[in-house]
């Protein structure tokens, strides 16, 4: 009798992580919130509480913890050094392609950044309804609002998100081919080829969080972005850094490693109309450590004492 329950709750752990990550944009924080939610479930059972629906119980605890986390994180993000980007979720290029394609829209960096325009409660309502398809009755109980209020919150959030959301309609195969061409041009130092692969208004964002060398401000325009990328690839190539294509938040991207196999950076490339529209580079070691050992190549000396990343 115990095995089915354990299997069910293993599946619930994945669902709770999916909710917490989309709420917080942080792998580490999401894992902590899910751990706390399961701890509270276990404590309730030990106290004699009969939990008829572990999914409902865990969904409520995880979401409420995430809302509280976001409320405290907003002030810290205001003092964040440079551009703030979500922590990347990285998978092998051909790992569960159907599943990754299905979730990529709600997992993409672009989508997660759009969610930043919503209040914590708006974010919760929107995600639970739009992405996870929870009924309004359950959402109302989770966020302690009426069903009518939740419907209004969702409608406003959906209108706000929908008016800003770009549709990246390139197929997985087209995106993968473009990223491979991007990588080849960057490695070969082919400025003309790289420029041709970028949108005229391409944007490049870097997140070092004050912990690693990165762009202080975003770059815009294919010439500036292409030149910067070639300079970075040439400099890191001399240091023995190797790039490999992966899935970053559900879309093809690049992860780089140093000669010891430690992670240097993760790049997310968003493709629109056959060209790269947005490049997001994450080098903040705090946001890469969940992926494995992080390289010191770009780390800024004397910044290890800074605690945490919002």
Give a quick summary of the entry.
By secondary structure, the protein is an alpha+beta fold. Helices cover 53% and strands 15% of the residues. It has eleven helices and seven strands.
CATH names the topology of the domain at 172-291 as Nuclear Transport Factor 2, Chain: A
Which residue ranges are poorly predicted, with pLDDT under 50 across at least 5 consecutive positions?
Answer: 97-102
Q: Secondary-structure element order, as H and E?
A: HHHEHHHHHHHEEHEEEE
Task: Report helical residue fraction.
Answer: 40-55%
How many strands, which pairing sense, and closed or not: the largest β-sheet?
Answer: 7 strands, mixed
Number of helices: 11
DSSP summary, beta strand count:
7
- Supply the helix-strand structural class: alpha+beta
CATH architectural type of the domain at 172-291? Roll
CATH first level of the domain at 172-291: which class? Answer: Alpha Beta
State which percent range the strand residues make up. 5-15%
Spatial strand arrangement across the major sheet: 1-4-5-6-7-2-3
Characterize the overall form.
globular
What gap, in angstroms, lies between the N and C termini? 41 Å
Spatial extent as radius of gyration: 21 Å
Overall pLDDT metric: 88
């Amino acid at each position: 009798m115990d095995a089915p329950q354990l299997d069910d709750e293993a599946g619930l752990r994945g669902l709770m992580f999916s909710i917490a990550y989309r709420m917080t944009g942080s792998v580490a924080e999401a894992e902590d919130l899910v751990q706390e939610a399961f701890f509270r479930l276990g404590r309730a059972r030990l106290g004699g509480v009969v939990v008829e629906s572990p999914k409902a119980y865990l969904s409520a605890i995880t979401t409420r913890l995430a809302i509280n986390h976001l409320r405290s994180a907003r002030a810290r993000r205001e003092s964040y050094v440079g551009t703030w980007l979500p922590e990347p979720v990285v998978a092998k290029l051909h790992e569960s392609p159907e599943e990754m394609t299905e979730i990529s829209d709600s997992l993409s960096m672009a989508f997660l950044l759009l969610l930043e325009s919503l209040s914590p409660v708006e974010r919760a309502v929107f995600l639970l309804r739009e992405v996870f398809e929870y009924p309004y009755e359950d959402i109302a109980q989770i966020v302690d609002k009426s069903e009518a209020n939740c419907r209004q919150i969702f409608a406003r959030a959906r209108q706000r998100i929908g008016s800003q959301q770009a549709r990246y309609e390139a197929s997985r195969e087209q995106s993968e081919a473009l990223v491979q061409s991007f990588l080849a041009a960057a490695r070969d130092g082919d400025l003309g080829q790289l420029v041709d692969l970028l949108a005229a208004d391409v944007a490049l964002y870097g997140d070092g969080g004050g912990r690693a060398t990165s762009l202080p401000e975003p770059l815009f325009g294919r010439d500036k972005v292409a030149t910067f990328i070639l300079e970075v690839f040439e400099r890191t190539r001399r240091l023995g850094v190797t790039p490999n294509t992966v899935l970053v938040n559900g879309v093809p991207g690049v992860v780089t490693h140093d000669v010891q196999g430690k992670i240097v950076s993760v790049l997310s490339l968003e493709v629109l109309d056959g060209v790269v529209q947005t490049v997001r580079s994450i080098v903040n070691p705090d946001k890469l450590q969940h992926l494995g050992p992080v390289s010191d190549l770009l780390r800024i000396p004397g910044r290890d004492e800074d605690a945490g990343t919002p």
